[in-house]
Recover the amino acids of this structure.
């Protein structure tokens, strides 16, 4: 077993190499060099140890993107403990569930979320210490509260002697339907995503400045804002606020990132906004993940903002992106090809690899960053982690040019007239209509009880949805059995915390 600590790799390595004076992170309040960030991380690690945190023990963090969250994550790793950054978009009940499941004894919270945290702590009897990033009057019965400065001014410690395979990070995922489960990642997996997607696809360099709309608590966000920039001595720009198009555009103009990471819903919101067309002038590459990026969004974004979006797909279980387009060679509407170091296969329902081009099946991936399982979820782990292979739950086809196209979640495929229909194919057509901002297509039974495609459409601001006109619009470019039989106008689509459309909720709504 080789001694390796991911926090040492991301920070101390640069300081040892003479790059301690480079800028590591910029927040609205502060800018820290690598030497300053490393020193804070060593102190936070010491502070956690002083709270009694032991190697391999979980430390949960429910915090806004900022120095506290970044140094809390890296400090826990440095101490050999396991940071568990969790969504800030959940209720107290939901937070309580993952807190109890993780058996974390220490919870770090931003002042914004203390009400939810108090409810959560009441559901998690093992929590003994709560660390608050700012003074807060709320008291947490039965636990000791601490101020963040206690951690960040503690005596520094040396990195705990972890190995490549030691647990480094847990990330909770619910998919679009299920119960939250903690995907457990190794220290070496963090280096693996930096050396594969980060270096070989993004081509990240030490003069890059990374800005991610996806927050640090997502697998996508922690790669974009922490692992990739820090792996090469580049700079991470952190934004604590809610990512509205205006707020993000203002920050982008001020901080001039060179790499910008978003999700399709956010690119769509930017296009619907009136932010200036030169907002992204500093960006050499935009990236999209989380959901397939419709070709029409790719084209509109490039036409208006002059920046190419690199669409890829990853998963919390794979830690980051494993299938991606390549800079300068994007095939719009596809997810590109496997990232170097990863293999993908499309398999039929019996698990047999499908060689034929254009035949849909479920996507499996094999690579160096796969989680070693879900915490305390034996049956689900067996279903998802199959030997070297990870079952993604996504439905894909291989195209004649060797690229791959996502057809949606494997269980979201719908049958119309006995033929499989990919909701995303129908959605791509509807998105070409100038009145359509967002759309989700699901199956709903017609008056005879036969499933037919139904489209839920969010109109572009100031425009109205005309169902007959949209159905008529689909006559062109779509086989008739794929055409939606009904169009329902909605104000918004229900989404997961990562921005994925919750089709199971929409299915229920259109059936009612
Ligand atoms: O959903 C994705 O595409 C993704 C990408 C990178 C990391 C994590 C996720 C879930």
């Amino acid at each position: 077993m080789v001694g390796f600590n991911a926090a040492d790799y991301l920070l101390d390595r640069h300081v040892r190499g003479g790059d301690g004076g480079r800028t590591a992170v910029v927040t609205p309040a502060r800018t820290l060099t690598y030497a300053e960030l490393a020193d804070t991380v060593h102190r936070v690690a010491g502070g956690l140890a002083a709270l009694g945190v032991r190697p391999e023990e979980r430390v949960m963090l429910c915090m806004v993107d900022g120095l506290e969250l970044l140094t809390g994550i890296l400090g826990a790793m440095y101490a050999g403990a396991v940071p568990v950054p969790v969504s800030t978009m959940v209720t107290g009940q939901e937070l309580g569930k993952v807190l109890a499941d993780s058996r974390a004894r220490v919870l770090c919270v931003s002042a914004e979320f203390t009400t939810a945290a108090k409810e959560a702590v009441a559901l998690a009897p093992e929590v003994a210490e709560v660390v608050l990033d700012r003074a807060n009057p709320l008291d947490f019965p039965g636990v000791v509260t601490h101020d963040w400065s206690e951690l960040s001014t503690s005596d520094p410690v040396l990195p705990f002697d972890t190995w490549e395979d030691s647990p480094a990070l847990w990330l909770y995922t619910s998919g679009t339907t299920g119960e939250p489960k903690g995907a457990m990642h190794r220290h070496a997996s963090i280096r693996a995503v930096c050396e594969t997607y980060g270096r070989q696809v993004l081509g990240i360099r030490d003069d890059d400045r990374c800005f991610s709309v996806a927050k640090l608590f997502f697998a996508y966000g922690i790669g974009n804002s922490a692992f990739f920039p820090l792996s090469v001595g580049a700079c991470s720009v952190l934004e604590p606020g809610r990512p509205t198009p205006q707020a993000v555009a203002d920050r982008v103009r001020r901080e001039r990132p060179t790499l910008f990471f978003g999700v399709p819903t956010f690119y769509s919101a930017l296009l619907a906004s009136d932010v200036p067309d030169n907002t992204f002038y500093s960006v050499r590459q935009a990236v999209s993940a989380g959901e397939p990026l419709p070709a029409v969004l790719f084209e509109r974004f490039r036409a208006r903002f002059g920046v190419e979006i690199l669409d890829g797909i990853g998963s919390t279980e794979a830690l980051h992106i494993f299938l991606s387009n390549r800079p300068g060679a994007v095939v719009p509407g596809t997810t590109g090809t496997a990232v170097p170091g990863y293999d993908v296969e499309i398999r039929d329902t019996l698990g047999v690899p499908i060689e034929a081009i254009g035949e849909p099946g479920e996507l499996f991936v094999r690579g160096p960053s796969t989680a070693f399982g879900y915490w305390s979820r034996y049956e689900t782990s067996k279903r998802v982690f199959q030997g070297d292979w990870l079952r993604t739950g996504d439905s894909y086809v291989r195209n004649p040019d060797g690229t791959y196209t996502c057809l949606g979640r494997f269980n979201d495929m719908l049958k119309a007239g006995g033929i499989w229909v990919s909701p995303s194919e129908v959605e791509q057509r509807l998105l070409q209509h100038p009145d359509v901002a967002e759309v989700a297509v699901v199956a709903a039974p017609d008056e005879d009880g036969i499933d037919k495609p139904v489209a839920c459409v969010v109109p572009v601001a100031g425009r109205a949805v005309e169902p007959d006109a949209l159905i008529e619009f689909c006559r062109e470019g779509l086989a008739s059995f794929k055409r939606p039989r009904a169009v329902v106008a909605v104000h918004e689509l229900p989404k997961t915390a990562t921005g994925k459309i919750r089709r199971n909720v929409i299915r229920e709504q259109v059936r009612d």
Summary: The pocket of 2-methylbenzoic acid is lined by residues 219-220, 289-290, 313-316, 320-321 (CB under 6 Å).
